[in-house]
Design a protein that fits this description.
Layout lengths: L1 E3 L6 E5 L9 E4 L2 E9 L9 H12 L1 H7 L2 E9 L4 E6 L8 E4 L3 E5 L2 H5 L10 H9 L18 E2 L4 E5 L4 E5 L13 H21 L4 E4 L4 H14 L3 E7 L8 H11 E8 L5 H12 L7 H13 L5 E3 L4 H4 L6 H11 L3 H15 L8 H11 L11 H5 L26 H11 L2 H15 L3 E3 L5 H7 L15 H6 L6 H4 L11 H4 L3 H10 L2 H6 L4 H17 L7 H18 L15
Parallel strand pairs: 2-8, 12-13, 12-15, 13-14, 15-16
Antiparallel strand pairs: 1-2, 3-4, 4-5, 5-6, 6-10, 7-8, 7-9, 10-11
Helix pairs in contact: 1-2, 4-24, 5-6, 5-17, 8-24, 9-16, 11-12, 11-13, 11-15, 21-23
Length: 593
């Protein structure tokens, strides 16, 4: 989509990856619109999306039109009558949307590489982003939601719209979460409401898919999505899982019982025999940026495999951990909520059950540990979540201060709620875990010609779950209590009642061992790596050797696989993307006048 603005005579250029969906672009009633994504509150979930947004815009205005849409989308609309350009992104940020504004042009795209190929867009990287990715924890790379890895390119944050009038771009929220009273109904009643909402979210996404396939792990989230689809459709569904010869993260045994009951065809994709450096090179090229965690390598290989088999939409369980307090760290913030309400007996009980069910040889669980976590991660004001300084800065010494001084980096933590648990969840959805995961999922699927669906991130479910009491999320040392109640009769009991979880992860500790370590050391000692000036080479070598020792000895201590993954991604991203002259790629659908 492109047009010359009659007010400013600046060029307006745009590109959204419409994926060939019928109705994804339209021109009518003096407007041109393009939609990357799907509206679920339409007759069939796919056709006419661009015409629908034009009609809603003329009737309601752009922000109100977006607020009426239920879906996963990035939208651009140009109004020929007044020369204004509008951009909009779905509420949680399932679909990416980037833009550049400069003296010569305003441009937007689904991927930053399309914008980098435009005249007037600087090739400089965003050094803050690079340094945080290189020497901090992946949770903090998206702490500033409107930044991208490139200094001259911005992201439109989730739940926001942008208006460009030919002179300036104005961004504002059209949707936000605010503190509301918690539901007062019984757990049984809320479980029924939860089930209805989840069924509707899954059902709407099923209508928009022609040949869906479901990612399946041993946990509650992906299993619940698939089980709901089976219940709705009345037939078993096809599923795919990443499996490993190393049993640390392999969930095959946890999956088998579910497969026998709910799955028509299961494809376990072995993630063992691959060239680590070659696959990461492929990934950074299709992502346009370094990839946050090693888990997404498994997902990349998985989507490549199924993308060749005619499937069109991959269903997953992203969002389930955040909404249902499924991550282990949520226990600490539930403890804080109990303490401030003077529920001391409940606090002691929950700490005891936490230790009983979730103790770990490295990350120990006991009362003193709980008290220490509370002192470190929760502030004195109600709901005040603190930065995990240890996690934030553990690898700071590996980054050269002359490149970017990370000691001055202060992550933003939002506190819209008086509850620690809710604020931790809010932070994860909008500034930490969800943004990088949704972006990685989108790029992996797009590169394989697939769409993706995450029913837990349906905005109605998000709004509902932020009003659920903490005791219905964590109780007796068990997470996801309300989801477990809602899935009675839907999930096999073995899955529904499983307390411990492996977690969807990957054995990167092994990937960075053996020959790959030598490759990594060769890379670190190379002239190009040294002259890039990002890393302290001696510290990086020390960490590599320490990692090799920990893994080789099987020591019960934390290894450095996440740091090494981020290191490899940063350097190969520079080699494959940043150091190369960008060119317009036809499949990015970039156009302009």
């Amino acid at each position: 989509m492109g047009s010359r603005n009659p007010k400013s005579h600046n060029f307006v250029a745009g590109s959204l990856a419409a994926s060939g969906v019928e109705g994804a672009s339209a021109a009518s009633d003096g407007c041109v619109a393009v939609v990357d994504g799907v509206f679920y509150n339409t007759a069939d979930g796919t056709s006419g999306t661009a015409k629908q947004i034009i009609a809603a815009y003329r009737k309601l205005g752009f922000a109100s039109a977006l607020d009426k849409m239920s879906g996963d989308f990035a939208i651009a609309l140009f109004d020929e009558r007044d020369g204004s350009l509008w951009l909009g992104r779905d509420r949680v940020g399932v679909k990416p949307l980037y833009y550049h504004t400069g003296s010569a042009a305003f441009a937007f795209a689904s991927r930053p590489q399309a914008l980098r190929s435009l005249r007037g867009v600087s090739s400089d990287v965003n050094k803050r982003y690079v340094a945080v990715f290189a020497g901090s924890h992946y949770r903090y790379i998206d702490n500033v939601p409107d930044e991208s890895p490139f200094g001259d390119i911005r992201q439109l944050p989730a739940g926001c719209c942008l208006q460009f009038d030919g002179r300036k771009a104005v961004v504002r929220k059209y949707w936000s979460l605010e503190e509301s009273s918690e539901w007062g109904e019984s757990e049984a009643v809320l479980a029924e409401q939860y089930r209805e909402l989840l069924f509707d979210a899954v059902g709407n996404r099923l209508k928009a898919a022609k040949k869906p396939i479901f990612t399946l792990s041993g946990g509650m989230d992906s299993s619940s999505v698939l089980a709901c689809a089976v219940q709705i459709s009345g037939q078993r569904q096809e599923a795919v899982s990443s499996v490993y010869s190393d049993k640390t993260f392999d969930e095959s045994e946890d999956i088998r019982g579910f497969v026998e009951e709910k799955v028509s065809r299961w494809q376990p994709i072995p993630i063992d025999e691959f060239d680590l450096f070659d696959v990461v090179r492929q990934m950074v090229r299709v992502h346009d940026e370094p990839v946050a965690t090693a888990t997404w390598l498994s997902h990349f290989l998985l989507t490549k495999s199924i993308g060749e088999q005619g499937y069109d939409v991959v269903f997953g369980g992203l969002g389930g951990d955040e909404l249902n307090a499924g991550e282990y760290e949520y226990f600490v913030f539930n403890f804080a909520d109990l303490k401030i309400r003077n529920l001391n007996t409940d606090f002691e009980h929950e700490v005891e059950k936490w230790a009983k069910h979730h103790d770990h040889p490295i990350y120990r669980k006991h009362r003193d540990a709980a008290v220490g976590h509370l002192a470190r991660l929760t502030g004195s004001n109600a709901g005040e979540v603190l930065v995990d300084r240890e996690r934030l800065s553990h690898y700071y010494p590996a980054v050269q201060r002359s490149y970017y001084d990370l000691s001055g980096f202060q992550p933003v933590l939002d506190h819209p709620y008086s509850s620690w648990l809710k604020n931790r969840t809010y932070q994860d959805i909008f500034r930490e875990t969800a943004p990088c995961c949704l972006r990685a999922e989108d790029r992996n699927c797009e590169s394989a010609g697939l769409g993706h669906a995450d029913p837990f991130f349906d905005h109605r479910l998000v709004e509902f779950m932020f009003r659920v009491p903490g005791s219905m999320k964590i109780r007796d040392g068990v997470t996801k209590r309300l989801l477990r109640e809602a899935m009675k009769g839907i999930l096999p009991e073995e899955t529904r009642t499983r307390i411990k979880k492996t977690g969807w992860n990957a054995p990167a500790h092994i990937w960075f061992n053996g020959p790959a370590v030598e490759q990594l050391l060769d890379l670190v000692h190379s002239r190009v790596f040294r002259e890039r000036g990002i890393y302290e080479v001696a510290e990086v070598v020390r960490l590599i050797e320490e990692h090799r020792s920990i893994v080789g000895e099987g020591a019960a201590k934390e290894n450095h696989m996440m740091f090494l993954w981020q290191l490899l991604n940063v350097e190969l991203w520079f080699q494959e993307v940043v150091d190369r002259v960008p060119s317009i790629n036809s499949d990015l659908r970039l156009s302009g006048v």
